[in-house]
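Protein folds are increasingly written down as discrete tokens. With that in mind, we are printing a sequence and the tokens encoding its fold.
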Amino acid sequence: MRITLWILLTALCVVRSAGAETIWLGMSQEQVVRALGRPEAQATAGARTILVYPGGVRLELENNRLISTQGYRGEVALEPAPEVAPAPPPKPEPKAPPPPPPSASENPPPQSGLFVRNDNLPAYSNTGAPSPTVLLQTARYFERLHQARVFDSEGKLEPWEWLLLACLMRLVLTMCTLQWISQKVERTLPWLGALWLAALDTGVRVGLDAAGYGLWRLHLPLLLREACAAGVLIVLVTYHPDVRQLSPAMKIVIGTKIVVFLLTLVLFLVMLNVSA
């Protein structure tokens, strides 16, 4: 029984000494003992140390460094295996910040053209009346048509479409009204004469506005421009061959101014109705 147990222990030591562990030249005695266990025998002579393991394994160390092996069945490397560092965890990708909400203060890009569509106008009320914003925008359209200015309130040139439309509207209204009023006072003006006077009236109003802003950087009041244009028309109508009197000339010109103003007011109401 004891012989059998001794044989098993010897075989176990031989298997262990066969070298499942990998050793390398240059390792210290502590590292050898940690890898293979305590030796059966150990001899030291000066700087040299010999370690004896079961199975005839003999390891020789010099200055506490392994320099040679004998009978070792495992792997003997020239240098220790490099330690593989664990791979770092993947960095999470940065999330893109959400886009900022649109600001109400941002103005849409300016649009060119005669009429500018505005989708930001508030809806109409339940009573059917247009909102104050629609009234304001329509009033601005009417003012631009009625004033017939060359420069706007910021000193920039008005779009040529607006100026042309305003001059044509004023020319047609003044020409037709001059013809109609002259018939009422029994001083009929020919259509060509009425067209010439209407063009002169429009030119005086537009010219005074351009001269006022060009010289003094201000818009002359509409009443002043209308008075100057009316004075020029009264003088010309007075010396017209079909009139030749101051009283009917004043009736024709003043009546024309009043009727043209009322017609433009009607046009404003029509524009307001179309906008609604």
In short: The radius of gyration is 55 Å. The CA atoms of residues 81 and 138 lie 88 Å apart. Strands lie at 23-24, 41-45, 48-53, 57-62, 65-70, 76-77. Confidence is low (pLDDT under 50) at residues 5-9, 11-19, 112-119, 121-127.
